[in-house]
């Protein structure tokens, strides 16, 4: 995992996106453990709160579960979760490009045909 500290995308979002992509691509599978928050924060040169926020968002999306001392484990994707994650990733990227909500929806409508 790599974080672009000078990039437009916030570091927590970079971590969230990379873990999400690893799950969708099968690099991380259900049952895999994510590194502890402090370990990953140190490895990436981030504040622990930054990594904790990424993990919390991944948990809210249903991709991971935090199990106390057992750590954070990958749950995987169901169809609905995969669709939500893909949509959320698209919206984040579109907003970084400066698109309005109407423009985002127009692009989706065009893609749907």
What does this structure look like?
This protein is mainly α and 113 residues long. The chain has a single domain, classed as Arc Repressor Mutant, subunit A (Orthogonal Bundle), CATH 1.10.10.10. Helix content is 58%, strand content 5%. It has five helices and two strands; from the N terminus they run αααββαα. The chain has helices at residues 11-24, 37-44, 48-60, 79-96, 101-112, and strands at residues 64-66, 72-74. A two-stranded antiparallel ribbon has the order 1-2. β1 and β2 form a beta hairpin. α1 packs across α3 and α2 (37-44) crosses α3. The longest helix is centred in the last third of the chain and has 18 residues, at 79-96. The chain is globular and about 45 Å long. The mean pLDDT is 90. One of its GO terms (molecular function) is DNA binding. Residues 9-77 form the HTH gntR-type domain. InterPro entries: Tscrpt_reg_HTH_GntR, WH-like_DNA-bd_sf, WH_DNA-bd_sf. Pfam families: GntR (PF00392). Keywords: DNA-binding, Transcription, Transcription regulation.
């Amino acid at each position: 995992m790599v974080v672009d500290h000078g990039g437009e995308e916030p570091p927590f979002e970079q971590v969230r996106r990379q873990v999400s992509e690893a799950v969708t691509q099968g690099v991380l599978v259900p049952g895999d453990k994510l590194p502890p928050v402090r370990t990953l924060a140190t490895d990436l040169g981030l504040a622990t709160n930054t990594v904790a926020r990424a993990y919390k968002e991944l948990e809210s999306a249903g991709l991971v579960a935090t199990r106390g001392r057992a750590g954070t484990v990958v749950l995987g994707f169901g169809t609905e979760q995969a669709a939500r994650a893909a949509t959320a990733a698209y919206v984040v990227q579109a907003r970084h490009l400066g698109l309005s909500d109407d423009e985002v929806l127009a692009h989706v409508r065009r893609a749907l045909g």
